[in-house]
Design goal:
- The structure holds 3 protein chains of 3 kinds.
- By secondary structure, chain A is mainly alpha-helical.
- Chain A has 5 helices and 4 strands, in the order ααααβαβββ.
- Helices cover about 35% and strands about 10% of the residues of chain A.
- In chain A, the strands form 2 sheets. A two-stranded antiparallel ribbon of chain A has the order 1-4. A two-stranded antiparallel ribbon of chain A has the order 2-3.
- Chain C folds into 2 domains: about 15-185, no CATH class; about 185-340, no CATH class.
- Helices cover about 60% and strands about 0% of the residues of chain C.
- In chain C, strand 1 and strand 2 (about 215) form a beta hairpin.
- The chains are: A mainly alpha, B alpha/beta, C mainly alpha.
- Chains in contact: A-B, A-C, B-C.
């Protein structure tokens, strides 16, 4: 009899709590972006395709479907850490040896450009302007530094140059100010 | 309960949270008259001395400019021009160490004064008769930007269309040492008041409040005397406390209002101008004397004669210090600005600009250098001192943790970087430095986020466009097909026959092996190319005879056939041909190697002696360069492919990279040589990579050295060539090590 | 020659951590003097023992942690912890009590949490609680004031009894605790507590010789001395007035209300304020910057919480005095208090309006 009472009591409790939890789960549901959106927000949107997917969103989709999180060289360690956080997995090192953290933009040596439009076709964000047989140039503000235009160039006239620091974007790295000898 | 305006009229002052009382040390300089500095040897004028954008340059190197002449234009509303502070010659326009904490070089105009100090034509205005627009454009054209430190363009603040209740003139000067505004008020109170009159004319405020700290009794008295005729001008003497000269703090002190987060004072009907700005406005309007000089406090115990000096803008700091008897110490700090918010200078060639109010050269005893940073003991002295009521130690933790969400939650953006927290910190933590770094990081993150968003939008737009184009194409094709079908239907019973014909054709096409077709094509093309090369050789020989500039080189470039001509149009044609051929050859060799691996890759390697003869036409040189590059690239691809199948035992002739650019007068030619060298290097690099990865395939490959015999006479481009070679070698080495 | 690059501000008020800690320790001097005069010289020996132990253990741990030893020893924080613990424990407690306590405070409570500034709890109070829980007998053997003692104690007696458990003339501590009439006397708070549990009324208990006026004999002067030292610290802007005021005010108000409600069993506010370690706790222990609340409003809450806990434990808890427990419990609440008492930033609307 005692055993039965205990069982009934516990069972009832379990039922009540289950119902409360179930209700709470529905009532207080936290609306969040679908996972792909969240991943896409973390990715740097360079659309460079270095991950093997044609752009950031497809890669986000792939991560959501279980692909590795360490295939984004432009994002570097920070992105991997954030992705690891979001996905609840271990942060892995970038799967390529070189981690480039310096921001770069493409630059076309204009006197060498032959106007083939190959780079224009390669640019995922339409940051190169020009017309056939006329010189092309890169809109530095729009360039994501994805490197995709470098390879197609038949005359190798595209350089990836690091973005120069300006006083406006300076990060207060006092130690980096060179000590100048006077006199 | 009297209203706010009545309270202000009655002289009530309020207080702001926190603040500190550092020793003022203004007695070093505030008793001496303003000294006028002689014109220095050179003036360095950064093209941007304010917040906003630099105007377009109006002068060029070598121009003689007159005193007061505009050097940059006021071509947009955020641009404030820079003027020649004295007459002289523009020596250069180069990057020069900027008067900014980063000391990064900024575009600076270097002026050599001629000592005549010759003025341009001046046109004083009568501000009572001219309209507001004229006044505002005069203020902008005179290059006036906030002289209190921030350097905000004054014409924007003075041209507000919002109703203004209070115009506050900031004469607080709360930083220790600085007495520039103090002296200005002592010596030129009436001009300042005229400047305020002009501002009143523009803004039409209910009252003008002039805030002066109580450690400047003489200045306060002078201002009171000068304002005595104007009934709605109130001189308010505020207690000495740092940072009561901060814009937000002074507003709270004088009006008990707070500028809401993310808004500007104008939104609550207040405009604040520095007293120096008011003076500059008066000069600009009444005398047509643009902003050419300013008063700078030069102080510190390393100086024999600390004093205020009237310095031309662009005067290097060294001239200021020398004029005051500077005795440098080891580990000397030279600070531009006050001890609380100023920044140290890495060298003394940094010029005085519109916002420079002080140059400080203290001894180590006077302002001891910061000792080691200790752990925070959570004493909250910082929070007690913070004028913005922030919690500096929480901000410190989150700055160290780079937690930008928390930093935003704790309102890091409201930090005015006054340094009060670091001043009181017993652990001597450079709190402000941490905040600045964190702020810069957050700004960068925001920029990146914005950029990522834009990139995404552009990417999506592009994809949409491509998709649309594709669909349009499909649609067009479908329409065409439908049209054809209809035509056929219309033409009647021929369809059956046509179908049969088509089938036969298809079958034929299938039976013809693709390989052979390719082979035939390739052979034909190669023939053609050889022919062209021969033609080219011939032509070149003729030309060389004609020009006879250098010794001729005989090589056997097979794939290049640029119909060389002195005519530039012809050259362009030649370029096009060259490109086309290069491409064709590339395709040919590609197919060739992939499909017929047993056959030794023919002469691809031989076509490596690109000889450039001396040609007068620069276009031609460029063409040659393009050809060389294209060829190089193509060859790279070929060789990469030969390496892939290990069974292939092709003998690849090793590139003998000899770029003999002989005595070119023309710099373009040197560039060509450089390009050649690069191309060869690239080729060779890949060849060596091949060698290492597939040794069987490339047994016969002999790695020759790149010999770039740049027999250039006195051409400065020689260096460039050498650099290119070096680069190429480095690249090669890197490649071979990678593989 | 080159110029030095530094970050602004370039000026500092030159008041370092070491300076602050030294001033706080100096402000304890009046209290120490009063204790030495009224309760014997034991406190001085305890001080010496505590300081030596603190320095040694701090140096040891710093060495093990690979930190600069000398510069950190110079911040005087170990010294202050040692002083506070030494004046909090019974002056004639055996030598190993203070040694264990100080070593625990420095090594476990302070350094193992990451050193100065990173400890969650007040080191002196955590050590006090450890000692009280582990060695309740030794930690409650307070001698009555010298004026009430049956045996005259010389400075040498202090040395003997601390190191050998017996005074030079061979008296043990319990014997010394007995007064002229042979009745064992504990601290006033302890006495009151025992009396009340025996069914005596408040007035009956307060008529004992261990009480003087409205507080304990000697203890009144001791608390006044700490009050003076604390006021000096406030005047020097070393500590904020908010925490002591909140402690005292809440203890005062609570005991006033309680004594009106139950005049026979609960002592009045003045008794609470001037007995036991109230003033020491309010001015010297609760104000320890590291473990206290850091916002202005938070400090008031924190102080009031300590006052409340002291009142509750003294009157309804299991220990006669309570400030060590009260401070530790309040320490635990500090992060929460700090989070909810953030000040309104300039130009922002109050948080309550944001919702």
């Amino acid at each position: 009899m005692t055993l039965l009472t205990a069982l009934i009591a516990l069972g009832t409790l379990a039922l009540i709590f289950g119902a409360v939890l179930g209700y709470a789960a529905i009532r207080f549901k936290v609306e969040s972006d679908p996972l792909v959106e969240q991943i896409d927000d973390i990715l740097p949107q360079t659309q460079c395709g270095q991950c093997g997917y044609p752009g950031c969103r497809p890669y986000a989709q792939a991560i959501a479907n279980g692909d590795d999180i360490n295939k984004c060289p432009p994002g570097g360690e920070t992105t991997i850490r954030k992705l690891a956080d979001l996905m609840g997995v271990e942060a892995k090192p970038l799967n390529e040896a070189q981690t480039e953290s310096v921001k770069r933009v493409a630059y076309i040596r204009e006197d060498e450009c032959i106007g083939c439009t190959k780079c224009i076709q390669a640019c995922p964000v339409d940051a190169i302007v020009g017309a056939s047989k006329l010189m092309h140039t890169v809109l530095a503000d729009e360039c994501t530094g994805c490197d995709l235009c470098v390879e197609p160039c038949p005359v190798d006239c595209i350089d990836m140059i690091p973005v120069a620091t300006t006083p406006d974007r300076w990060k207060w790295d006092l130690a980096a100010i060179p000590v100048r000898m006077v006199e | 309960m009297p209203g706010l305006f009545q309270q202000i009229q009655a002289g009530k002052l309020w207080d702001f949270h926190g603040g500190i009382h550092p020793p003022g040390r203004k007695e070093q300089t505030n008793q001496k008259p303003i000294a006028v500095l002689p014109i220095p040897d050179r003036l360095y004028l950064p093209l941007r001395q304010h917040i906003g954008v630099a105007g377009q340059l109006l002068v060029k190197v070598g121009d003689r400019v007159l005193k007061g002449q505009q050097l940059t234009g006021a071509d947009n509303s955020m641009a404030v021009p820079v003027h020649a502070p004295t007459s002289g010659t523009v020596l250069s326009i180069t990057p020069h160490t900027s008067p900014h904490p980063s000391a990064l070089p900024e575009l600076t105009l270097v002026l050599e004064p001629d000592g005549l100090d010759e003025w341009r034509q001046r046109e004083p205005l009568n501000f009572l008769t001219c309209d507001n627009l004229t006044l505002l454009s005069r203020i902008q054209d005179s290059g006036i930007a906030g002289m209190g430190g921030a350097g905000f363009p004054t014409h924007i603040k003075a041209g507000l269309t919002q109703p203004v209740d209070y115009l506050i003139i900031n004469a607080v000067e709360c930083e220790p040492y600085i007495s520039a505004d103090d002296l200005l008020m002592q010596e030129a109170a009436t001009t300042i008041v005229k400047g305020i009159d002009i501002l009143c004319r523009l803004l039409n405020p209910k009252a003008v409040l002039i805030g002066i700290e109580d450690d400047k009794p003489i200045a306060a008295a002078a201002m009171m005397a000068a304002c005595s005729q104007r009934e709605h001008y109130y001189v308010r003497v505020v207690p000495t406390k740092y940072p009561s000269g901060g814009e937000k703090q002074l507003i709270q002190l004088l009006t008990n209002k707070e500028v809401p987060n993310g808004r500007r004072p104008a939104d609550i009907g207040i405009v604040m101008q520095n007293v120096g700005t008011a003076f500059a406005i008066a000069q600009a309007v009444l005398d047509d004397h643009p902003l050419l000089s300013r008063i700078v406090t030069v102080a510190g115990d390393t100086l024999n004669q600390p004093q205020n000096v009237l310095a031309l803008l662009g005067t290097p700091v060294s001239a200021l210090l020398d004029a005051c008897g500077f005795q440098s110490q080891p580990q000397q700090r030279v600070i531009m600005g006050g001890p609380m918010m100023g920044f140290t200078l890495p060298d003394l060639s940094v010029p005085v600009v519109k916002t420079t109010n002080c140059v400080l050269a203290p001894t180590a005893q006077e302002l001891p250098a910061a000792s080691t940073e200790m752990d925070c003991i959570r004493c909250s002295a910082c929070a007690d001192a913070c004028p913005a009521s922030l919690l500096p130690q929480q901000l410190l933790w989150y700055s160290k943790a780079k937690d930008s969400d928390k930093l935003n939650e704790y309102n890091l953006a409201d930090c005015i970087e006054c340094g009060a927290c670091a001043y009181v910190c017993p652990s001597e933590i450079p709190l402000v430095q941490y905040y600045r770094v964190a702020k810069a990081d957050i700004r960068e993150q925001q920029r990146e986020a914005l950029k990522a968003e834009q990139a995404k939008a552009r990417f999506e737009a592009r994809n949409a466009r491509l998709e649309q184009e594709k669909q349009e194409r499909q649609q067009r094709n479908q329409q065409l097909a439908a049209a054809r079908q209809q035509q056929q239907l219309a033409s009647g019973a021929n369809t059956a026959v046509a179908d049969a014909l088509a089938r036969i054709k298809a079958k034929q096409a299938q039976t013809a092996p693709a390989d052979e077709r390719n082979k035939e094509q390739i052979l034909a093309e190669r023939e053609l190319k050889k022919q062209q090369a021969r033609d080219y050789q011939q032509q070149k020989a003729q030309q060389q005879q004609a020009h006879q500039a250098t010794e001729p080189h005989s090589g056997q470039p097979e794939q290049t056939a640029a119909t060389v001509n002195t005519d530039s149009k012809a050259a362009a044609v030649a370029a096009a041909i060259a490109r086309a051929q290069a491409k064709k050859a590339a395709q040919a060799t590609e197919q060739h190697t992939t499909e017929q691996q047993v056959m030794p890759t023919p002469d691809t390697g031989k076509g490596n002696e690109a000889v450039v003869s001396a040609e007068a036409d620069p276009r031609k040189a460029a063409i040659a360069a393009a050809i060389a590059r294209a060829k190089a690239k193509q060859q790279t691809q070929t060789e990469n492919e030969t390496s892939a199948p290990p069974a292939a035992a092709g003998t690849v002739d090793k590139p003998t990279a000899e770029s003999n650019s002989a005595a070119p007068e023309d710099p373009r030619k040197a560039a060509v040589a450089a390009a050649l060298a690069r191309a060869k290097a690239k080729k060779q690099a890949s060849a060596e990579a091949t060698e290492q990865t597939a040794p069987l395939a490339t047994e016969a490959v002999i790695a020759d050295k790149v010999v770039a015999d740049a027999v250039v006479t006195e051409d400065p481009r020689k260096a460039a060539i050498a650099a290119a070679i070096a680069r190429a070698k480095a690249r090669k080495q890197a490649d071979s090590e990678n593989s | 020659m080159s110029f030095k690059i530094a970050s602004s501000p370039h000026q500092h008020n030159q008041r370092s951590t070491a300076h602050i800690m030294r001033l706080v320790a100096l402000a304890c001097l009046p209290g120490i003097a009063v204790q030495a005069v009224l309760f014997g010289y034991g406190v001085l020996i305890q001080l010496v023992l505590a300081i030596v132990t603190a320095w040694l253990s701090e140096a040891l741990i710093l060495k093990l942690r690979g930190k600069p030893v000398l510069s950190r020893l110079k911040d005087n924080s170990a010294l202050l912890t040692a002083v506070l613990l030494a004046i909090a424990i019974p002056p004639y407690a055996p030598w190993w009590i203070i040694v264990i306590g100080t070593a625990f405070a420095i090594i476990m409570v302070k350094q193992l949490y990451g050193g100065l500034g990173n400890n969650l709890f007040n080191p002196a109070m955590a050590a006090y609680v450890l000692l009280l829980v582990s060695f309740p007998l030794q930690m409650t053997q307070w001698l009555p004031p010298l004026s009430l003692q049956s045996v005259d104690l010389t400075p040498l007696d202090a040395v003997c009894s601390i190191f050998t458990h017996y005074s030079c003339s061979g008296f043990s501590l319990p014997q010394l605790q007995a007064n002229i009439d042979g009745i064992t006397m504990a601290t006033p708070l302890d006495t009151l507590r025992t009396d009340l549990s025996r069914g005596l009324t408040l007035d009956e208990s307060l008529s004992r010789p261990v009480f003087f006026a409205f507080a304990g004999t000697g203890w009144l002067w001791l608390n006044l001395a700490y009050l003076a030292g604390g006021l000096l610290l406030i005047q020097q802007k070393i500590i904020s007035w908010r925490i002591p005021l909140a402690v005292i005010a809440s203890l005062f108000v609570l005991s006033a209300i309680a004594t009106l409600a139950a005049p026979d069993t609960i002592a009045g506010p003045l008794f609470h304020l001037f007995s036991g370690g109230t003033m020491l706790a309010a001015f010297f222990i609760a104000t320890d910057p590291v473990s206290a609340s850091t916002t202005n409003k938070g400090r008031l809450v924190y102080g009031a919480l300590i006052g409340l806990l002291v009142f509750l434990i003294r009157n309804f808890g299991g220990y006669p005095d309570a400030y060590a427990f009260a401070v530790l419990l309040a320490n635990m609440a500090v992060p929460l208090i700090d989070y909810y008492t953030r000040p309104r930033t300039y130009g922002h609307r109050p948080r309550s309006e944001l919702k």
